[in-house]
User: Fold these one by one.
Assistant:
Number 1:
Amino acid sequence: MNPFLQAAIDEAEQGLAEGGIPIGSVLVHNGVIVGRGHNRRVQRGSTVLHAEMDALENAGRRSAAFYRECTLYTTLSPCAMCSGAVLLYGIPRLIVGEHETFMGEEALLSERGVQIEVLHDQHCIALMKDFINARPQLWNEDIGT
């Protein structure tokens, strides 16, 4: 198992344990995790704290050059908002745990030069499928449907 994807999965599981949506993300710079996050919309009553946004927030203020040397790992394909943040900060590489349960803006990211690798991780898929089956209304709220 990729240790950075495992760190993102650990974040997703923490979010689920807190009563939230099980999506996790880590921002990696030169082989070191510099930001961790998980979806905290429920826990914080937030409209924007998806896992990727939380990881970026927890990485703190950084230079544009710094972000251009990072890789973002996420357990689930990123939505339009999170994809926009990847583009805004010029993050060149995205590693996605799975996109079977939700296909985000991967085509847009690819068109804009972001290198994407989808791992089709069975643990990530099962985590989301179980959550979507158990809490479909909360899931639909999170993805804006």
Number 2:
Amino acid sequence: MTIKGQAYIVGAYEHPTRKAPDKSLAQLHAEVAAGALADAGLGVEDVDGYFCAGDAPGMGPLSMVDYMNLKVRHVDATDIGGSSYLLHVSHAAQAIAAGKCKVALITLAGRPRSEGQATGTVARPGDTNRPEMQFEYPYGVTVANAYAMVAMRHMHEYGTTSEQLAWIKVAASHHAQHNPHAMLRDVVTVADVVNSPMVASPLHRLDCCVISDGGGALVVAAPEVARSLKRPKVKIIGAGEAVKGQLGGRVDLTYSGARVSGPIAFAEAGVTPADIKYASIYDSFTITVLVQIEDLGFCAKGAGGRFVSDGNLISGVGKLPFNTDGGGLCNNHPANRGGMTKVIEAVRQLRGEAHPAVQVKNCDLALAHGTGGLLGTRHGSATLILERE
């Protein structure tokens, strides 16, 4: 089933807080839901589909549908980490196309900063029923070193340098300076990044994303609903999803699931990477961005380091403006599922509602991409192509 033109994103809202010790997880979900519905010009009574992932409290949809007093006929709690919410946009469009719902509410919230979450340098056993745990946990796999392995491999294979990776943080910081809610608003240099403390070689502290509370929400609606609203219309024209694991022992750290999800989305949308005016790219680490840019087709494999150098990701300067809110590297990264904010900023760009200093001129076609899990072990990928109508 194609979703091209079958649904629109009509509401988007990002929670302004970056630390919320006085709010419950359920409260954050409800607040972003209210914000997105108000942005769309809709009410709770209009919602007949609800989507959330593992960050939702209690029993996910069961708890949150009851908490927010929703009357729904379709729910989805698919969880593939940071790419979950891009997947939910696709699944919501599919559900709308299939007649399962007409107005889908998608919410994300998290309190990792208030809860004192570590920076990804401590091995976490997680669910001991997961089949890989007995093989991997004894070796101390952490979030940071799983991504560091990918960075080290990329450097070995293609000659990528720490200075090239640093340009990704530099670009994010140039955008974050204009975002009053961003956690890191100071513009940094390549030297600042490579001279920051090493976290997991070759990744430095400034190669890593921030940890924040907060969240966001989206409203996806059927065409007839979108036409009745006064907000600018953002059409969903392509989507792709993939899961990459250890491939039965034939491990290749040089590529991600974006190599599969990206072409699927581009084919459905009927466009190419060269057509994209703005890209929201999941940025848990600088290496995450580099690998995804290559796998999505914005440059050749191994050429990512050269592509991102010299400010090519900076709006108004480079070839591919990215993460104009500052992204996870500088703005926020709630609940370890930063894909939601990638969609929100893409919507802002397509509506012409990004900060004037970073708004991409004539932005009519945008890509949002998320990676969830660990790039060095197993992860999900989800790609969206969005168009301004």
Number 3:
Amino acid sequence: MFKFFFKKNFCDGWDNFFFIVLSNLIPIALTIGAFFAVKFTSAVNQYLPNVTVALCFAVITLSVFSWGANAAALADFETPTFSNYFSTLKYVWKIGLLYGLFLAVAMFILRVAVAYYLSFYLKNGGYLYLIITALLCWFAIICVLALQWFIPLYFLQDDNGFIKCLKKSFIIFFDNAGFSVEVFLLNVLILALTFITVGIFPGVNGVLLSCTNALRLRLYKYDWLEEHPEFLTDRDKRSEVPWDELLADDMESLGERKLSSFIFPWK
């Protein structure tokens, strides 16, 4: 299943290279604006930059959140458009800003907590503080692995609000821990390539496309389990999901893609 996901995700990214590049200019511009906003507020008050960072992070997250509709369209073999992006922005701005503020506050609290307990350990010793620090770090890792499903869940399923997306993100992670790690590692490679290209490609929108493609395919498992409830109570049998059968239509839609088709798409 992961092999097909990787192939489809690469094809979606390559076929929509210029659209993704242009889309990434929005969060890049917002990030540059955030840098100057923090620089300006730091000259006004020493505590004000913390608020500015949180607000700017929320706005940047909203821009990525709004692109989730195009990511879902690409994952479903549809054509992405900028009109879709701006129309989506009108109805997701509340949950997008809330999600961004949630992440900003969570990262701030976690950073303070880790620094607090780690400083206690370095000053006074005692393995209790070290254990607490390690637990906090593991909690942060689990949150990162789970929350990569948050935005895709909102656009791939109906009637998912903030709490539902949050709850389902962790459910999907714990039920697909290995797959979540694999997708995360792929996203790390995407971010490394993004760093090399100064955020232009694949960029944060490329990461979102990766998560959306992965979740869309993974959700086939739950549709299949609804039709075969006898597998729900047996975790050993749940690994017997017939992926070749479930992915047959997507494989046919994607078709055979040879190396020459990426270099010479007109052939």
Number 4:
Amino acid sequence: MVVDVTIYIEGVYSENTSVLAVDNTAVFRESFYKLLSQKLSPPDFNLIIQPFGSISQTKKYLELIENHKSNAVVLIDLDGPKEKIPDRLARYQPLDTTRIFFMIQEMEAWILSQVDKIEEFGNTEGLTRKKQDQDIASNPLIKNKHPEEIEKPSEKLKTLLGQYFESVKIVRGQQKIKKKQYSKAKDGPKLIGLLDLERLMQDFEEVHRLIDYIGSIEVEG
């Protein structure tokens, strides 16, 4: 029996209103599906990725899950260390908080945990690698730090991409070389789609818990 499982994920928004949000949403869906399908076999379930832009909508989706008694979970940024989980969960009681899973501290922590995928992203995006003799993993921003302990990982990722990669743009017919600017809406999903889920499960307890939870839904179905 194929089981429908919906994952409501915080994270899609555009820094630029002129950017078509529908395109960002499509890439976001595809990337998370690609990542989670590494462990969750598509023949056994119908995985539905439903992104939403603001963490303020979390309660709304929890209520939707309860009202429809659906096989669904909510995946959101914690925006803090894992010690903050109890406080965050308390905000949503008496709703079923077992349906909430956290990206600690942000989605970008997942990306920073796999520096080799950042290098792969640079290659696939046609970026120019600066500081060829310097390994990103040796940068003081992330060196010898567990990815869950990196504060404001989105800012760290932005800094690292700017330090190690350049992009070429044509402006008024002239070639301009600029340091790579990180876009959460455009680049974040692409990077997520490159990640290794097994390694994420080893580095992030919440990722392991999410996969186990969805697996139990499949079995029950």
